[in-house]
Design the sequence.
C-alpha cells in the first residue's frame, strides 16, 4: 500500500508562483512513476506532469510545459511541482498520483495511477 500527502497549495495572484509537494509513504519501492493531475469544478481531471522515478525522465502536458516543473528530492520519496507564471485558469484542486505499472510509455492517463492523494487547492486570482 502507498500513501500520498500533498501540500503547498494556497492563494496566489496571477503571475505568481507556488510549489506543491507530495510525500509518499508505505511500499514506496513499488512506485514506478509519480505525477500530478488537476481538476476544476465542473471539469474533468486532467494530466499535468509525471516523472519516472528510476531514471528521472519527466513529461508534461503541452499546454503547461515551460511554466510547470516536476522534480524529486534525492534520497526521499517526495516530488514537487513548481508552478510559475500562474494564470486564473490554473485554479483547481491538484492531486498527486503514484503508479506501480512498468509502462513502455509515460504514465499519462488517470487509469495508469493506482494511488492518489487527497488533493491540495490552488487558487489564482486575476
Sequence:
Amino acid at each position: 500500500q502507498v500513501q500520498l500527502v500533498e501540500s503547498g497549495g494556497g492563494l496566489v495572484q496571477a503571475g505568481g508562483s507556488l510549489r506543491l509537494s507530495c510525500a509518499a509513504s508505505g511500499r514506496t519501492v513499488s512506485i514506478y512513476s509519480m505525477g500530478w493531475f488537476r481538476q476544476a469544478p465542473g471539469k474533468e481531471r486532467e494530466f499535468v506532469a509525471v516523472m519516472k522515478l528510476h531514471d528521472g525522465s519527466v513529461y508534461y502536458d503541452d499546454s503547461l510545459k515551460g511554466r510547470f516543473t516536476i522534480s524529486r528530492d534525492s534520497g526521499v520519496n517526495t516530488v514537487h511541482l513548481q508552478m510559475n507564471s500562474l494564470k486564473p485558469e490554473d485554479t483547481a484542486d491538484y492531486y498527486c498520483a503514484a503508479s506501480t505499472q512498468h509502462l513502455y510509455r509515460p504514465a499519462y492517463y488517470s487509469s495508469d495511477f493506482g494511488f492518489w492523494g487527497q488533493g491540495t487547492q490552488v487558487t489564482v486570482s486575476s
DSSP finds no helices and eleven strands in the chain.
